[in-house]
Specification:
The complex is a heterodimer of chains A (247) and B (252). Chain A is mostly helical and 247 residues long. Helices cover 75% and strands 0% of the residues of chain A. Chain A has ten helices and no strands. Chain B has helices spanning 59-66, 105-115, 123-133, 149-162, 179-194, 206-212, 230-235, 240-247; strands at residues 21-30, 33-43, 48-52, 74-79, 91-94, 167-171, 198-203, 215-220, 223-229. The chains are: A mainly alpha (247), B alpha/beta (252).
Chain lengths: 247, 252
């Protein structure tokens, strides 16, 4: 058995036997990333609806900024949040550095532009389709926004899935603001980086397999949602795209 | 708005009378092109007024101006004796390509019932009533977007009527329908007129004009070419262009 095969079989053993350390790391990863996506949804979806429906001064600038922030490098976000939260930083008194909360903040910043940009494109299309019909029902802009969000819910879920894929797979931001502290801020990606450098390939590979499975699951979910959305729209359409991005 | 009975009917105890429209120097321009030019007309408050004319004559635009979806850049539309603006009278509009919500057939009607502020307790009976009228009872739980063209048009029409309008505006309600679907849509519209709703519809279908219209407005190149009782105009076309249109000759 070569070292890779050995590591792989050990990794499989950890997964099958529900290794406690591995389980904790996966749980924290999911908690942090799902919370970040929830926050991104709370900010991004209303903002996307506003951008799609309302023409206001500075709208173009917001859209350009959002699209520019799509490619934000996680380490840069991590660095900025680190500077804000560090002892000497403006928010240092909160004492959040090296806590899961800090990781949630960093990932929210990373994911919000993604959710907003994808949701904005979706809602623009929906608005173009629905605007005149909804005008027949004499709806206020506010009501139009809520109706569009509801009508587009299945398509918007794919925006959230894309955001989650980005969050759960990134390593730079959580490493810097979380510090990869065992049992407190260690998540899948930071653990993989550490264990690999330590030479403990079994745990690294085990976590890698979990991450792959999550990536697969998220993409399968997104695919299913798209198919369901197309069915609701009365059209047949297939547009699967990769949602997990490199972190 | 309070309503009596299950269908609709304005304010109880007050006969609001039929709602006609007055067009007063109406003009719509888009990108430097006149779509409607200086329209002056009284559309009677009774029955069905059909707006006919060749493609590009401005029929859809007129329907949308009457419904307040397009703001005219000249003149105005007034509804009823007080000349109320389009937003101030209970209207329903059926677009040429109605956009159904990505929900079930029933949920599309619930949406309209909520817009009409119908009490939650009254909604199920009202919706069942309209599902039956539109012949969609068996399709109530189907996704609306999966219905056939005729079923979709009936659903959109039922959804418009649930709003309890006093004016019903239809943009080519028969376009693209087979004869039986067309008949079903026309029957719903005629029933609406019979209950006192003013109907204005645009159409290309001269047979539909003969079957349904009380009055007729012939638009050509954004201007009113002929206006009057439908049967009179159809039997004795007052202008050369209208005569040519009826015979199917090219107008340009």
């Amino acid at each position: 058995m070569n070292p890779f095969e050995q590591a792989l079989s050990e990794a499989w053993g950890l997964l099958v036997h529900g290794d406690a350390a591995l389980f904790d790391i996966v749980t924290l990863s999911l908690q942090v990333s799902l919370t970040a996506v929830a926050i991104a949804a709370l900010i991004g979806l209303p903002l996307a609806a506003l951008l799609a429906i309302h023409r206001f001064p500075g709208r173009g600038a917001v859209i350009v900024a959002m699209n520019a922030l799509l490619g934000l490098p996680p380490v840069v976000v991590g660095l900025i949040v680190y500077l804000m939260l560090s002892r000497a930083g403006p928010l240092g008194e909160w004492g959040l550095l090296f806590t899961p909360t800090a990781m949630v903040i960093a990932q929210s910043i990373l994911v919000t532009p993604i959710v907003t940009a994808i949701a904005h494109r979706t809602l623009e299309d929906f608005h173009a389709e629905y605007a005149e019909e909804l005008a027949c029902f004499r709806m206020s802009r506010w009501e139009v926004g809520l109706t569009l969000l509801r009508e587009a819910r299945l398509s918007l879920a794919t925006a959230l899935a894309a955001g989650f894929g980005r969050a759960v797979a990134e390593v730079g931001a959580v490493m810097i603001v979380g510090g990869n502290i065992d049992g407190i801020t260690r998540v899948m990606t930071t653990a993989i980086a550490l264990e690999t450098s330590k030479g403990d390939l079994a745990l690294a590979l085990g976590l890698g397999l979990v991450l792959l499975a999550i990536a697969l699951g998220v993409n399968a979910l997104a695919f299913a949602l798209r198919a369901l959305a197309a069915r609701h729209a009365g059209e047949e359409r297939h547009a699967p795209t990769a949602l997990i991005q490199k972190g | 708005m309070p309503r009596d009975g299950i269908i609709t009917g304005g304010v109880p105890g007050v006969d609001p009378g039929p709602l006609g429209a007055t067009l007063d120097g109406l003009g719509v321009h888009r990108r430097g092109r006149a779509i409607l030019r200086d329209l002056n007309a009284d559309l009677s408050g009774h029955g069905v007024t059909a707006v006919i004319g060749p493609n590009g004559a401005g029929k859809s635009t007129l329907i949308k101006v009457l419904g307040g979806l397009i703001r005219p850049d000249q003149g105005r539309v007034g509804w009823g004796p007080d000349g109320l603006p389009p937003g101030a009278v209970p209207q329903a509009i059926l677009l040429q390509q109605p956009v159904l919500l990505r929900r079930t057939t029933r949920a599309n009607l619930v949406f309209a019932a909520k817009r009409a502020r119908i009490a939650r307790a009254d909604q199920p009976a009202l919706i069942d009533h309209w599902l039956g009228k539109a012949g969609l009872s068996l399709l109530a739980e189907s996704p609306a977007r999966r219905l056939s063209g005729g079923e979709q048009r009936r659903l959109a029409l039922a959804r418009a009527l649930i709003l309890g309008p006093r004016v019903l505006l239809l943009d080519e309600p028969g376009a693209g329908l087979d004869p039986s679907a067309l008949r079903a849509v026309e029957a719903l519209v005629m029933e609406a007129t019979a209950s006192g709703i003013k109907v204005v519809l645009s159409t290309h279908d001269l047979g539909q004009v003969r079957r349904m219209a009380d009055d007729l407005l012939f638009l050509n190149a954004g201007q009113i070419d002929a206006l009057g009782p439908a049967s009179d105009l159809m039997d004795a076309p007052p202008t050369k262009t209208f005569d040519a249109f009826l015979k199917g000759d090219l107008l340009w």
